[in-house]
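Q: I'm teaching a short session on how sequence maps to structure, and I want students to see two examples side by side rather than one. Could you give me a first protein with its sequence written out and its structure tokens following it? Keep the formatting plain so it prints cleanly on a handout.
A: Of course. Example one:
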Amino acid sequence: MRISIEVPGFEHDNPIPAACRVGPLLMTSAISGKELFTGELPGGLERQCENMWSTVRKVLEAAGASTENVVKVNVWMKDRSQRVVMNKGWLEMFPDEHSRPARHTFPAPELPGNMQVQCEVTAVLE
């Protein structure tokens, strides 16, 4: 049975949920650095990354998961050379270097407007 996961204030432009769960598998839709409730996109990469990682936590929580359930994160960045900025929140979420999910960071110069970063998360729940 498929279950849509919604998070108050987290809205997509398209009719899709924040995440979807089937059995123990949880996959998010795209999570950007937009402000919850307003949908505003801050100008700087640092703030967008903070918002993105915060929203990831909220989506996981709404699904009954935590960062411990995450197995893979895909990240798209307008400028991949700025990964050090994105890594700050990554290291806060996953501080144990021996227990981090897999990650792939893709170049995405086509992200719309001033969007600098977005991600999707795959998790397995018990």
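Q: Perfect. Now a second example for contrast.
A: Example two:
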Amino acid sequence: MLRDFGHQVTVIHPFMLGTFVNAMTKRSYNSFSEEDGIRVLRVGVAPPLPFFRAISYAYCFQHVRNAMKTHGLMVKEFTIIHSHAAFMGGYIAMKLSKYDGIPFLHTEHASALHFNPEQYTSTDKRVLGKIYSNARNVLFVSRYSLNSTLKNLRLTDSVRYTVLPNVIDNSFFEEPINRNSIPTNFLMVGDFLPVKNHELLFQAWITVQDKYPALNLTLIGDGLDKIELIKRFPSLNFNMVTVLPRLNRAELRKVMSTHEVILSSSIVETFGLSIAEAQALGIPTVVTNSGGVMDIVTAETGIITEPSATAYAKGILQMIQSYHAYDANRIRQLASQRFTSHGVMNQLNSIYQQVL
């Protein structure tokens, strides 16, 4: 998006090669290439010591600095640094900014800050606080993500925090709207992880199947094994359930466009990308109240329920009965106003000007 709107972009991708033990044979890695007009520097390191993550962050930063020098990347040639996810992007952006005086802003994407904050040590939280306090602006993809992060880190609100939604690939808006008059095909996108709460979906779907046995349910995500699911949920009619692995965005767009309703039963969603993508296709949604979706789903675009099997089943049944009331073109129009690259880029350019 930045490239397409006239910005020159270089991406630095720092990452850990693994734990101290399983990365013993490969201690570091870096590569530099141009991909679709964007310079990309990848730097991977193994932790120098087990358990001490703060040391690993500093160690990774030094490798990034060295790799930049090796490949002729000088921080002073850039106007602004925009980091994503505090570890490691935000940490390294903060250090580069301090070393070379280039202003930086940060977008937080770490959903674990909300559904598993216990994994962060007191040192991690201090580092997070430093990143946020040194950034010229900290962006969050939803009001929930902003408020939850400030609460978990015990930070105070300030004008430096801004909510900016994720951008939806333009191809979702270009896909023709193709909807049946009666909803028969339902889709949920998400890996088989506790936070996605498939169990709640299955419990609710048993109730839905009792009333509408001809409905089709499609599940997309890694870790979904149909045989194991049949064992765990014998009451479900899995003859009407299709399980697909994780798909790329183009594949997902094609599959999504053949369904009338998109579902999400998550415990926590900082944004809810598949929900926004569904709206770009003009598809209504039924979601649990999982945080970020509250910024996306309205009475015109879908139904939000409490996170219980009873409430969720009721919401799906309500969607079936009132499906005719959801205008596909209106749903797409609302998504276009918020999630297209043009709209998001206009906001981001304004934020960049403020930072500078």
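Q: What should students look for in example two?
A: Point them to this: The chain has a mean pLDDT of 92. Also worth mentioning: The longest strand covers residues 28-35.
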